User: What shape does this take?
Amino acid sequence: MLNIIRKSSILLPITLISCVMTKNNFNPLKNPASYQKEYNESLENNNAFWLKQTSILDWIQPPTIANGSDFSKSTDVKWFEDGKLNACYNCVDRHAQKTPHKTAIIFEADQPGKTIHITYRELYEKVCQFSGVLKALGVKKGDVVTLYLPTIPETIYAMLACTRLGAIHSVVFAGFSATALASRIVQAKPRLIITTETNSRGGKTFSLKKNVYEALKENLLNKNNTVEKVLLVGQSLENKNTDSVSINIKEFNFESLSKLTQPVYDYAEMCATDPLFILHTSGSAGIPRGIVHSTGGYLVYVALTHKFVFDLQENDVYFCTADIGWITGHSYGVYGPFANGATTVLFQGTPTYPDASRFWKIIDENKVTIFYTAPTALRSLRSLGDDFVNHASLESLRILASVGEAIDPSTWQWFFEKIGKSHCPIMDTWWQTESGGVLICPLLKQPQKPGCAAKPFFGIEPRILHEVGGNPEEKEALWIKQSWPGLAMGVWGDQQCFKQSYSSENFYNSGDGAKIDEDGDIWVLGRIDDVLNVSGHRMSSAELERAVISHPAVSEACVVGYPHDIKGQGIFVFAIPRNNVSIQSEHLCEGIKQNIRKEIGPIATPDVILLVSDLPKTRSGKIVRRILRKIVSKDFENLGDTTTLGNPSCIETIIMQVLNKNK
Ligand code: PRX
Assistant: This one.
C-alpha cells in the first residue's frame, strides 16, 4: 500500500530543494591546486563537505546530519540519516520537468541499426507505467523484487519503478546460470521476479525465462521458495510454457497488464538510509553476498562522482559499456547518469559483434563524448588488429575511462593514441561493488601515468597498510579510513558477515594490494585475497572449487588465477580424481567444465583443468593456494618455504605437469 507517497506531475512541478551543483560547472578534478584544496577541505571538514554535496539531489527533507557511521558496530554505515528523498524522482521526474525533450537513453540493440532514442519525458511515462504494473502485482515499499534481465530499456524502467514505489531491486546478471540465479533468489527472498523470454548477445539468443523456471523448481525442491509471481517483459513466445502452472507460480505479461492498470505518478518518501538495492558479488567465501546500497548516501555519491570524474557537461553523450547486471551498470549506467540528467548510451551487445568495430561505430553514429569501458574489452579489440579502429573518426570523444582492473601501460597507450587521438584524458577508476562509486582516479589533466589510478576522490582517505599476521608474500593492502556516502550498508540478511569481512576499527579493507609512489599517487596491484578477477568479473576461488567438487568423480580441488593476455586473469583448476571412479580424463575435464557452467555460468568456464594425484597441503591438511598460484604463474623461484608442508614432494610433479600442459 502506497500510504507514504508524494505526488509528482509534469504539469505541476512540486517545490523541493533545488539542485545547485548540477548548475555549477566548476570541477576541482581539472586542476591539481583546486583538487588539493577541495580534497583537504573534504577531510578536514568531512561532515560539512558532504552536507554541502547533498544539494546535487532534490530532497523532500534535506539532511542535517552527514556521517553517522561507526565501523566498530556491526550495522552502522549511516549517511544523511534524517534526510528524505525518492531516488526515482531524482533520476527521472525532475529532468522530465526541466528538460522533457532531452534524450535520456540511446538504446543500441545487439543487432546494429536498431537505435532507439528515449527522452526524459518518455522515460518518465514508461517508469510510471511500470510502477502501475508493479503496484497492481502487489509490490510495495520495502519489498524485494528480483530482476533477471539483460541490458535493455525495460530493465531500467523496472529498476526505477521499484525505486519509485520504495521497493528494493535485486538485479541478477543475465549471464548467470539457473543455479546461480536460484541461490541469489534464496538470499534475497523476493515474491516477484521480472524477466524476459530471451536475450540476444553477440548474435546469439539465450533463454532467460527457462532459467527462471529452472531456478524456481530447484528452490521449490529444496523448500526454499518465496516467489509467487513472474512478470514477463518484452515479446512472449507463441508456445506458452506450462512451467508456471506445474509449480503453481502466477505468470503475468507486462504488455497485457499495462493495458489494465493506471500509471503511478506518486512516489514513495524514503529515508536516506532505506535500502535502494541489493547486488550480489563474490567475496573470499564460497557463497555470493548480497551487498546492500542505501537510497541517499549512494545516490549522492554516484551523482557527484559521475559529474566530476567524467567531467559531465550539459550536451555530453555518455557511453558506459558495462552490463546492467554489475555494479558499474548500476552506478554509472543508471543511477549516476540519470541523477545528473545525462544522455546515456545503453548497449545490449558485445564489442566484437557483428565485428570489432561495433564500439567505434556506436561512438561515431551517436557522437559519444565520454566513453567508459573495461581493459579486458580493450585488450580483446586490440588483439584483433587496428583496421577496425582505423576506419572510425572518433573525433567526438573528449574523455576516456576504464574500470574493472588495472589497465596495463601498453593497452593504456593504445587506448590513448588510437581511440583518444592523444588528447583525451584516461580516467582509470578504481572502486568496488561495496564502494558504490569511484574511490580513486587520476586528475583530468595530462600528463597521466599509464596504469596508475592515482588520487583519492574527495572525502576518501586511503591507507596502505601491511597486513599483520597476513601471508608474508602478500603485497601491502589498500584500506580506507572512515566511511563515505557510497559505502554499502551491509550484506543482505547477514550483517555480521559485512563487519567481519570489511571493517576493522575505523578502516574499510578493500581486499586489494597497492603501492604509493613518490608523488603520493596510488597504484592498485590486484586482489590479495582469494578473489579472482576474470575479464573484470569478480569470482571467488571457493565458489569455483565448490562447483568442481560437486562432480562425483572429484575428491579435492583448488582453483587459482593466472596471468591471461585478454582476460587479465584466467581460471586454472587443479582437481584430484576419486580413486574408485573410473572415468577417462577428457570426460572428467569436460564434466568439470559443465559443472562450473551449470553452477555459475559461462563467464566462469575454466581455461585450464589439470588432474593431479596430490595437492600441496599444510600438516593440518589445508591446501596451500599460494604455492599453486606461483606455479601457474611460472614463478618457480619464489615458491617460499615448502619444508613445512605435509607433502612437499608433490610440488615437483605438479610443476612437471603444468609445464607439459603448456607445451
Ligand atoms: O581488484 C579491484 C578491481 O575490481 C575489484 C572490484 O570488483 P567489483 O566489485 O566487481 O567491481 C568492479 C567495478 C567497480 C577491485 O577490488 N578493480 C576495479 N577497478 C580497478 C580495479 N583494479 C585496478 N584498477 C582499477 N581501476
Summary: Confidence is low (pLDDT under 50) at residues 1-5, 10-23. DSSP finds 20 helices and 33 strands in the chain. Residues 281, 327-328, 403-406, 428-433, 453, 510-512, 524, 526-527, 533, 538 surround adenosine-5'-monophosphate-propyl ester (CB under 6 Å).
